[in-house]
Specification:
Distance between the termini: 55 Å
Largest sheet: 7 strands, mixed
CATH superfamily of one domain: Vaccinia Virus protein VP39
Strand content: 15-25%
Shape: globular
Number of strands: 7
Radius of gyration: 18 Å
CATH topology of one domain: Rossmann fold
Strand order of the largest sheet: 3-2-1-4-5-7-6
Helix content: 25-40%
């Protein structure tokens, strides 16, 4: 197996964790819930779709009803490897498309990196057609990441308020993960964070812990009473109000 094939497998297991990811992906628990949530609602988005904060467009294949899939992202130093997937760049203020351009919008794990969230939600509303659908995911229980561009965490009521304030109707909302899975994931994160910085050495040492904590999180997350006062992500399905704000 050549090096490129291995890289492709690892990249896929990062966002679409399966059996292999269960043994090698230290973010397995949070990623499996996120993938399922997006996959189960992908058919709600159709027509001309905007993927805001697209990165490498990891979930593009799930949106089979999209006639056109356009990715937009912010230029960030150190993330040039993703620029090949980006169709347009965002200047931090205005999404470079006309009003009522898109039938649907996808935004995954981005809003925590946005300081001017209310301005951005106005832009989401502006570029979506009336009745257009949006699928937005945001982390709640997660460690600081992509520093120094990690600015906020939002509760379900806070997001509900913000979306409604900016002209969206909430069609569906749910949480991914539960208290036990969060404990397992954060325990694994702690071990990862105190290991040597060398990626290869760290991954080798981490492998048995990945298996143990993923197994613990999955089994006890299923059999113990559910508690989602601590959880990984909020997933919202929104519709631009016909009676726009």
């Amino acid at each position: 197996m050549n090096k490129q094939i291995v890289k492709n497998i690892i990249k896929r297991e990062k966002f679409f964790p399966g059996i292999i990811g269960f043994f090698i992906n230290h973010n397995f628990l949070i990623r499996i819930g996120l993938k399922k949530g997006i996959q189960q609602n992908a058919n709600r988005l159709e027509g001309k779709l905007l993927d805001f904060g697209c990165g490498s467009k990891p979930y593009k294949e799930l949106f089979e009803k999209a006639d056109e899939y356009i990715g937009i992202d912010l230029k960030i130093e150190g993330r040039e490897e993703n620029h090949q997937y980006v169709d347009k760049f965002y200047d931090g203020k205005v999404i470079p498309f006309d009003d009522n351009t898109f039938d649907s919008l996808l935004c995954t794990e981005v809003l925590e990196h946005v300081f001017n969230i209310e301005e951005l939600l106005k832009e989401f509303n502006r570029v979506l057609k009336k009745g257009g659908k949006a699928l937005i995911t945001t982390p709640f229980m997660w460690e600081e990441h992509e520093m120094p561009y990690d600015y906020a965490r939002y509760t379900t009521p806070a997001l509900m308020h913000l979306y409604k304030k900016h002209g969206f109707e909430v069609i569906h909302t749910f949480k991914t993960g539960n208290y036990i899975e969060v404990i397992s994931q954060f325990s694994l994160n702690y071990i990862k964070n105190i290991l040597p910085s060398n990626k290869i050495i760290r991954q080798i040492i981490l492998l048995p812990f990945i298996f143990l904590f993923n197994l613990f999180g999955l089994i006890f997350g299923l059999i113990l009473p559910k508690d989602q006062t601590a959880y990984f992500n909020n997933i919202f399905i929104l519709e631009k109000s016909v009676n726009n704000y």
